[in-house]
C-alpha cells in the first residue's frame, strides 16, 4: 500500500499571463507569488510529509517551484512526470485569455467532464485526465510514502472531490497494487 500526499501548487502569479498575453502552454510558465511561496513553506512543516521518500512533480513552473521548496525543506529528490500536468482546457493549445479558460472550464463543469453523446469538446475529458494521472501514480507503488505536487483539477479528479482545492493544500490518497516494472526504481535510493 502506498500513501500519496497530493499537494496543489502555491498561489501562482496569473497576472503575468495577461501582461505578456501568453497562450496555450505558455500560460503555465508563471511562477508562484510571494504568498504562494509562503504557503508552500508552511505546507512543508506538515508532519505527514516528514516520512516521505520522494517528490513527484508536474512539469509546470508553479508545481516545480512548489516541489523545489519541498525538496529543499525535506531533503528529498524530485522526479518530473509530464503526465501530471494540469487538465488541458484546450487540446489545441490555442486559448489565450482568462475569459476563454473560464468558458472552457464552465463547459467542462456543465458536462461533468464527460463529452455529450456524439460530441467532441476542445477540452480534455475527466476520463482522459484521470487515466493519465493514474498511470503515473501506478509507477510509484513501490514506495510507501510519496509527495506529488500538481494541480487542482488533477487532484480533484483523482480523489473525487467537487470543491476547489486550496493552494498548497495536502490531500491524502492511498492506493494498493504492484508497481510497474521500471528502471525508475533501480535509480532511487531509500
Automatic annotation (TrEMBL):
<protein>
    <submittedName>
        <fullName>Histidine phosphatase family protein</fullName>
    </submittedName>
</protein>
<dbReference type="InterPro" id="IPR029033">
    <property type="entry name" value="His_PPase_superfam"/>
</dbReference>
<dbReference type="InterPro" id="IPR050275">
    <property type="entry name" value="PGM_Phosphatase"/>
</dbReference>
<dbReference type="Pfam" id="PF00300">
    <property type="entry name" value="His_Phos_1"/>
</dbReference>
<dbReference type="InterPro" id="IPR013078">
    <property type="entry name" value="His_Pase_superF_clade-1"/>
</dbReference>
Amino acid at each position: 500500500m502506498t500513501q500519496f500526499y497530493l499537494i496543489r501548487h502555491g498561489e501562482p502569479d496569473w497576472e503575468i499571463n495577461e501582461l505578456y498575453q501568453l497562450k496555450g502552454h505558455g500560460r503555465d510558465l508563471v511562477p508562484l507569488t510571494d504568498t504562494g511561496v509562503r504557503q508552500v513553506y508552511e505546507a512543508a512543516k506538515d508532519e505527514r510529509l516528514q516520512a516521505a521518500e520522494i517528490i513527484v512533480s508536474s512539469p509546470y513552473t508553479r508545481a516545480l517551484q512548489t516541489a523545489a521548496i519541498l525538496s529543499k525543506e525535506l531533503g528529498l529528490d524530485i522526479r518530473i512526470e509530464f503526465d501530471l500536468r494540469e487538465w488541458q482546457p484546450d487540446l489545441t493549445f490555442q486559448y489565450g485569455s482568462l475569459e476563454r479558460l473560464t468558458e472552457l472550464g464552465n463547459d467542462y463543469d456543465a458536462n461533468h467532464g464527460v463529452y455529450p453523446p456524439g460530441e467532441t469538446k476542445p477540452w480534455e475529458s475527466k476520463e482522459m485526465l484521470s487515466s493519465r494521472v493514474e498511470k503515473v501514480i501506478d509507477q510509484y507503488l513501490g514506495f510507501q510514502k510519496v509527495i506529488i505536487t500538481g494541480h487542482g483539477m488533477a487532484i480533484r479528479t483523482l480523489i473525487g472531490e467537487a470543491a476547489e482545492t486550496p493552494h498548497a493544500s495536502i490531500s491524502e490518497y492511498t492506493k494498493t497494487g504492484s508497481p510497474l516494472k521500471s528502471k525508475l526504481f533501480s535509480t532511487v535510493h531509500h
